[in-house]
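Support request, please re-run this one:
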Amino acid sequence: MTIDDAPRDALRGGPRELLRWVATGAAVSRADLSRLSGLSPSTVSQRVEALISQGLLEEAGAGQSRGGRRPRQLAVPTGGAVVGAIDLGAHHARVGALDLSGRVVQARTLPVRIEDGPEAVLGALLNEVATLVDGDPAASRGGSATGALRGVGIGIPGPVQHSTGRIVSPSRMPGWNGFDVAAFCAGRVDVPVIVDNDANLMALGAHRTAHSELDHAVYIKAGTGIGSGVISSGRLHRGAQGSAGDISHCRVVADPAPPCTCGNAGCLEAVASGAALVTALREQGVPVSDLTGVIRLIDDGDRQATALARQAGRAVGEILAVVVNFFNPQVVAIGGRLADCEPLLASMRATLYERCLPLATQTLLIERVAAGQDLGITGAAHLVIDHVVAAA
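Re-run finished. Output below.
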């Protein structure tokens, strides 16, 4: 069983949790870690030494004495950007370099043409990661010393078989079906490459940033497409093949219904995604070119755009009501570009309260994802950090 597969209770005092406590400032010494974990000082010391030997922790001087020898303070190395992250979207990619605490050191947003194909798109983005790390593409082959690249996390806007890093039947990515992202990238960087769905990375980034104390959560990413990531027992839940949380092709409208890119009709993505709103407005004669234009119309109080946003919110709420009744999460949070669309959010919230059991919504938080555009790369970085810690 890997560290990602272990139950949350079994991770109490595990290497990843020790690292997280130091990174968040909850612990600054071995004594703090022993108190928080309930482990013996010798066990904590052994695990800390292993993390130090891997460059994941460092000793940062002596702390304040509490009557005995002054404890040696611990810190997560922050002297260099050592984790690369790519959050690929339909039209843009967020590329970042982060340190081992998950802090963004540098990041930038780049336009992409997904139709250019995986080799061209990923090759260019990997070069950007290397440039962000230290300005030299050759740095991606720099080994494992502190400050060198330790791994790259990549989010893909389509279904990903997480165990292999292969894309499976994406609906809006022509030429990407069956492409082995992990193998392609591994041939260009000598560090671990971890690939996942973009909604999963947003969920992981949001959970670690805002709700790490909660065990069960659902995070929706609503932009050009629509999807969700699930946190169960404090960890990302992918299911058997990696498709857990893919709500985009759940049917919400009976025939006649708008066709979906998956070949069916009436799917949530065909009704409630940003791309669906653009299409619906054009069919009503409203000259809008992209999702930015849709959001501008909604902000200006346009009657047609606002009505469509409310309909989209109801559709999302209907699907999430099933999820909430079945899974019983503590929080449902929506992110992505449509998260700031108040008519959609209000309609989604109202539908959830109407359709869910009272027990399921009694203490349920329904909110926007608090952080901004770096959630995807933050989640990607935490995937890499977790992998590095597990290897240590």
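The chain has three domains: 15-75, 83-203+375-391, 208-372. Residues 83-203+375-391 form a domain with the Nucleotidyltransferase; domain 5 fold (CATH 3.30.420.40).
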